[in-house]
Amino acid sequence: RLDEAIREVNLARELDPLSLVVNTNVGWVLFMARRNDEAIAQYVKTLELNPGYVQAHTRLGDAYVRANRHRDAIAELTTVVRLTKDSASSRVALAQVSALAGHAADAVRLLNRALQERDDKYLSSGAIANAYVALGHDDKAFDWLERSYRERANNVAYLAVEPLYDRIRQQPRFRALVSAVGLP
């Protein structure tokens, strides 16, 4: 119900026009609705409010990679890595964007480095799954998606609309997961 979501998130922005979270979510809902150019413009506006807001940089990187603006996407996620002091989760996000930009070797290196830290630091199974989806490593992606379902990671709530999953959406394991979550 993306049209309704857009109306609701725009209402939230009207009520709190300086909220970084709300402004970023306006862009995110537009991104989920495949209105990528509008999403990019919204993320840029959000970053004008606060150039150091990590979530807006992360989401902007996702939107840039979908727009085939790969250098911009990698630059945004490199900024996220810097702003988060090289956190494992930011490296996995950079791995995802790098894979989508065609830099598989860099993506694998970043992902493996983050996975080595998983015992000591929290790293979302959903983020790992997304990196494997981006790499085209479907078996590993599905293993991690199923794990994220078991762990109740938040990415499973967006299975039906996340553009990253478009490539695998019709595969039986994905359809079974969507059904298990209870999404249409």
Sequence-ordered SSE layout with sheet pairings:
Elements: H1 2-15, H2 20-32, H3 36-49, H4 54-66, H5 70-83, H6 88-100, H7 104-116, H8 125-135, H9 138-150, H10 172-181
Written account of the structure:
The protein has 184 residues and is mainly alpha-helical. 38% of the residues are buried. α2 (20-32) packs antiparallel against α3. The longest helix has 14 residues, at 2-15. It has helices at 2-15, 20-32, 36-49, 54-66, 70-83, 88-100, 104-116, 125-135, 138-150, 172-181. The chain is built from ten helices and no strands. 70% of the residues lie in helices and 0% in strands.
Query: Termini separation (Å)?
Result: 11 Å
Structural class: mainly alpha
Provide the gyration radius in Å. Answer: 16 Å
- The helix count comes to 10
Order of helices and strands: HHHHHHHHHH
Basic shape: globular
Number of strands: 0
| Residue runs with pLDDT of under 50 for 5 or more positions | none
The helix fraction, in percent, is 55-70%
On the 0 to 100 scale, the average pLDDT is 96
